[in-house]
Amino acid sequence: MKRKTVFIILYFLLCVxxxxxxxxxRLLRLYPLNKGDIWIYRETSFDKWSWDINSSIWQRVxxxxxxxxxxRVYKICAKKYKDxxxxxxxxxxxxxxxxxxxxxxxxxxxxxxxxxxxxxxLNLGDTLITSELIFRxxxxxxxxxxxxxxxRHNYFSSTxxxxxxxxxxxxxxxxxxxxxxxxxxxxYRETSFxxxxSVNGRKYGDTxxxxxxxxxxxxGKMSLYQNYPNPFNPSTTISYYIPKEGxxxxxxxxxxxxxxxxxxxxxKPAGExxxxxxxxxxxxxxxxxxxxxQGFVDSKKxxxxx
Length: 306
Hints:
The structure is a single chain. The protein has 306 residues and is mainly beta. It has two domains: 19-210, YmcC-like fold, CATH 2.40.360; 215-304, Immunoglobulin-like (Sandwich). The protein contains two helices and 20 strands. Strands 1, 2, 3, 4, 5, 6, 7, 8, 9, 10, 11, 12 and 13 form a 13-stranded antiparallel sheet that branches. A hairpin with a 5-residue loop joins strand 2 and strand 3 (73-81). The radius of gyration is 23 Å and the shape is globular.
C-alpha cells in the first residue's frame, strides 16, 4: 500500500502542471533578467531635423537586485554606450503571475510608483490599451542569429501623445531576450540589432566588446555629455566628468540665453557625476545647459517635448 501511495505521488509531481509555472517559464524565456547577463547591440540613429546619421555600440547589463521603498524587488539594468563614460539605469520588475513587466519611476521615489512597461500575457494579435501605454503582440517570424535560425516574437508599444509620441518595435528570441529594437519619436529614430550576448551562463558570439568606455581613457579630460534621453519628457539625465575635485556650476538657459535655473552649484569629488533634470512646468522648446569648473566651460542643447 505504501509503495502504491509513493507511486501516485510521483506520478502527480511529474504529470500535473502547476498553475502559473508554464507562464513563468515563458516570461523568463522571452525576457531573461539574470544577474550578469549582457547583451551587445549595434545602433544606427537618425536625427529628423539635422539629417545626421550616427552608428554606435551599446550594452545592456543586469547588475543585480534592489529593494525599493514600495517593498518590491527590482532588477538593476544598465545601458552603456561604447563611446560614453556614463550609463543609464532602469529598475525593472517581472511579475511571473500576470506576465507583466514594470518600471520603477526613479524620478518620483517618494511615491514608490511603478508603471506598466510590457505585457507578455497577450496572445498573437492581442492589444492592451491603458491611459499610458498601447502594447500589441503583432507578429511572429524567424531570424538568423549565431548561425542558427530562431523564431522571433514581435511586439509594438506606444506612449505619449501626437507630438511627444514614442513608438517602439521590438523582436524577442526565446532564451535570449531582445534581438531587435526600432524606436521612433517626432525628432529621431534609432534602430538596434543584437550582435552578441551572454545569457544565463550561455554565450552567443563575441562578448569581449562589453568592456567599453573604461574611465582611464578619460583621465585628465573634463567632459560634459549630451543629456539622455533627448528629446525628453518629463525628465532627462545630464552627466559630466571631472578629473580632479573642484567647484562645479551647472546652469540651465532658454534658447535666448536667459538663465532659467541653477542645477548644480557645489564642490564635487573627481569622477563621473549625473543630475536628473525634471522639467516640471517648463514649456516645450530648446534649452541650453552650461557647465563651469576649474576654468573649463562647455554647453549643450536639450529639447523638451510635451
